Amino acid sequence: MKWQRALTMGGTVLAVIGSTFWVYFERGEPQFVDPTDVVSDAFDCWEQPATWPKGLEVADSLSCTLTSFTRSVDSLQIFHSTSVPKTLPPGWKSQEWRGGWILGVYIAAWEIDPGSMATHWQPRSGGRMVQTLRADGTVESTFEHQGKESRAERLVTQIGGGVPNGNPSLPQSWAVWYRQIAESGNIELAAVGAYPIGETYIPDSLRWLVHSSWLNCLVDGIRLRAFAGVDSLAAVQQCGSWERGVWYIPANDAESAWSHLPEYGLGEEQNSAPFHFAQKSQMQTKTGQALVDGRLVWTIQDRVDDDTGPVPAIESVIAAPTTVKPGLLGYARNHRSDERMELVRAKNRVVAKENGREVWSVEIDADVFPQVWEIDLYRNGKYQVAIGAGKRFHVIDILGREVKGFPKRWTTGFSAFAVFDYDKTRQFRFLMAEPNGQVFNFRKEGERTPGWKFEAQRGRYIISLSHLRLGPLDYIFAGQDDGSVRILSRTGEDRFLTPVRVPVGQRLAFRLGKDLPSSTVLYVDGEGWVQERTIGSDEPVGLSGMTRGVAVQVRDRTGDGVPEVVVTTAAGEEVWDSANQRIAN
User: Fold this and answer.
1) 137 with 208, same domain?
2) Number of domains the chain is built from
3) Per-residue pLDDT tens digits for 447-473
């Protein structure tokens, strides 16, 4: 019986060992957890992508997403990297954490307890996002586009302040008064608002008197305040003076600084101003719009010496129409003149025009619709234009010359073009699909991109290419000629199987969720209805069947950091918010 017991014990040991190996291999790498979903409010300033610390090197700097979490009370800062660190700055430590790595001097202070910061974090691509938890409990989110050094405007979303009942508005008369004061001399700061917020500067003992419009200004170091909608007797008893429905602090008399400023005029009191808040200082001008859900969206214009405006990035048309309509294709910057050029299709040419003058032109086939992209191939602020048209893909410099390595040609014509800048680092990838099923990937001066492993599916070819970024992961959404879709990785290998089918020749738009399966693709079907389908299950959701149109796109039209769906119709445009409610436009 001893041999039977030994056999039983041996079998048990082997089973335990086998289970251990099974668990090890089945679990594999730890599941990635986005730190912005779980980090504590103790870290009250988050930045993504973070300013790169000197001395930090990671295994894959191109795909790495670096986020910083700062605790302002003691300036402690911890970084999170999606790529394994190779070299750390002096005194730093690193630790693997849920699919990523935390880095810094005092990483033991890392705290997981999601609060307001995690709740309100809305990641955006194409720029740098900074979110701050203010002392009054509101959350301020700032987004600045990257690669647009001349851009002086940015958007700031303030969350948590709340809008008073009744959806108050700023009377036009107060807006006019504010502008007159802001434009007069010796004004260090001027501000106006529809209801009290942090910038109101109300003495604590007088807050109970203020519930509507207000104005503040700083003149020669003297703070002047004016409020509307208060009891005149109580106001005068407290301090200041009362005149035509306005309470002035200090009193508005011949000896006060008020006497040197434009007077308040009732004007068109019944009309509402186009904004709720505004502020002007020597450094910046900003206007604020209050949304009913409690968000306050600021548009901030910094004072800069260079008065040239920003140029929007050129966007590609994912699926080109079969009918050709000559006209404007997009814009690109001329770094020599600091002017914006129009890119126009004129018969069988793409023409770059500046103030009506032709700068350069490129010949294209007469029966194709070109796609254009502004790029900075050498990452030196000197711009080129990529053009995909029929049988050729060009990269043209400001003098109209082909960049070395281009054009790329295909005898029977390309079926799709794309220009991707995965990490917004100007490391461009040029993708070209061919009717034989192949997709080529080039970089820099027309070199083949190493590691590209795409394999065509028998009897099918790619007709549209889109880049989706969710957390640290990249996906290439590739529509095929039979309506099926392949989801690829950066290397061209199949990364995700989707049942979604999309119409051939339609421009696609996307609403990104927490992961790829919950994200959606939008398009207009053959009967003109907008359809929205989940990528994971092809389930109709959101705007599916709610409206008709000829095209659909996803853009941040309100400037609050949350993209809206814009539907182009025969009568104009419809704008729908993230809750699928139509917004007046």
Assistant:
1) no
2) 4
3) 999 999 999 999 999 999 999 998 888
Q: Please give the mean pLDDT across all residues of the chain.
A: 81
Q: What sign has the CA pseudo-torsion 156, 162, 165, 170? A: negative
Query: Measuring CA to CA, which residue among 100, 156, 103, 105 is closest to residue 128?
Result: 156
Domain that holds residue 18: 1-30
- Please count the CA atoms within 13 angstroms of the CA of 180 that sit on its side-chain side: 13
| Model pLDDT for residues 558-568, shown as the tens digit of each residue | 777 788 999 98
Say yes or no: 3 and 48 in one domain: no
Domain-ending residue, one of 265, 290, 315: 290
Residues 17 and 53 in one domain: no
Same domain for 197 and 221? yes
- Main-chain phi, psi angles of 476, to 5 degrees: -105, 115
Cα dist from 25 to 18, 99, 100, 240, 513, whole Å:
11, 16, 19, 76, 29
Yes or no: say if 148 and 312 are a contact pair by the CB < 8 Å rule.
no
**Planar angle of CA 115, 120, 123, nearest 5 degrees:** 125
Tokens 């509507």 correspond to 212
CA-CA distance, 324 to 369, in Å (whole number)? 6
241 found inside a domain: yes
| Residue 323 counted as domain residue | no
Interatomic CA distance for residues 261 and 429, integer angstroms: 57
